[in-house]
Amino acid sequence: MGISQNERQSISDLVDQHKDLPGALLPLLHAIQNEVGYVPDSAVAHIASGLNLSRAEVHGVISFYHDFKTQPVGRNTVQICRAEACQSMGSRLLEAHAKETLGIDYHETTADGSISLEAVYCLGNCACSPSVRINDDVFARVDQNRFDELIADIRGAEVRK
Ligand code: FES
Question: pLDDT by residue (tens digit) across 102-125?
Answer without folding.
Answer: 999 998 899 899 999 999 999 999
